[in-house]
Amino acid sequence: MINLTSETGFLLMGFSDDRRLQVLYALLFMVIYLLALTGNLLIITIITLDHRLHSPMYYFLKHLSLLDLCFISVTVPQSIANSFLGNGYIALGQCVLQVFFFIALASSEVAILTVMSYDRYAAICQPLQYETIMNPKACSRAVIAVWTAGGLSGLAHTAVNFSVPLCGERVIHQFFCDVPQMLKLACSYEFVRELAMAAFTTSMAFLCLISIMLSYVRIFSTVLKIPSAEGRTKVFATCLPHLFVVTFFLSTAGFEFLRPPSDSPSAMDLMFSIFYTVIPPTLNPVIYSLRNEAMKAALRKVLSKEEFSQRMVYLKSLFKL
């Protein structure tokens, strides 16, 4: 084992010490990663190319896909490389960047999900004022606020987390530099600073959750008043996938971050970390595209031979210029 008593880096224990299992996990993660990349890139491409999807709902969905694409890229490629090489070592600088981007993107994802719930509330409960409320300038400001809040959260967590002195060997029982696992390495007398930061972030996430729940209470109370069963079905088909994504992401992440840290590593730590780092970015494209008729129609149009031929002619004309 690499000597990690010095401040050179950390050792990620990953899923197994068995070499064959390490390769198996790497191959499985590679397949999942490629599926997530393909799905999210497809959504970004479809929404960008199809002018019928240039509305606030799909504008926010495009940014959610971009966040998902970046979010899964922070942890999974490093884990795949470590598993193939049979070496869990990660340099200090890499770990710092991983913590920053992980927290920043996770915070941004919670924020964009909150904005998306408000967008659905405005569209369903205030349809006459919807275009005024969710005008292009307001949407742009909301997205800027989402990315800015995520970046500030990442900076604060990283600054506090890596200013805390660590005691003992730098071994992290996880496949990435996970903040709850890194808390176990902190010296007891400095532990309170990171706990205070975690409590603040948790409070912000809880406020976002309350806002989302209030939006959906109003949405569902309005939907139930719609006399047409077809109209209710259409609204539920739009809102329920978003509610599922929010519930799954926040519940699994909240369970992992709020439960008291244990001295002994467990398979549950790895399982829950997969639930909020790998599964949501992979499932989001499926949830939002397969249940959405507009997305399916746009996908068929983009993949059609006629559309493909038109795109090729357009690209050739650009290169000639």
UniProtKB/TrEMBL annotation:
Keywords: Cell membrane, G-protein coupled receptor, Membrane, Olfaction, Receptor, Sensory transduction, Transducer, Transmembrane, Transmembrane helix. It comes from the Eukaryota. The chain crosses the membrane at residues 23-47, 59-76, 96-118, 138-156, 195-214, 235-258, 270-290. It is found in: Cell membrane. The keyword Zinc-finger does not apply. One of its GO terms (molecular function) is G protein-coupled receptor activity. One of its GO terms (cellular component) is plasma membrane. Its main location: membrane. It is a multi-pass membrane protein. It holds the Pfam family 7tm_4. Residues 39-288 form the G-protein coupled receptors family 1 profile domain. Belongs to the G-protein coupled receptor 1 family. Odorant receptor. This is Olfactory receptor. It comes from Dipodomys ordii (Ord's kangaroo rat). The gene is LOC105997032.
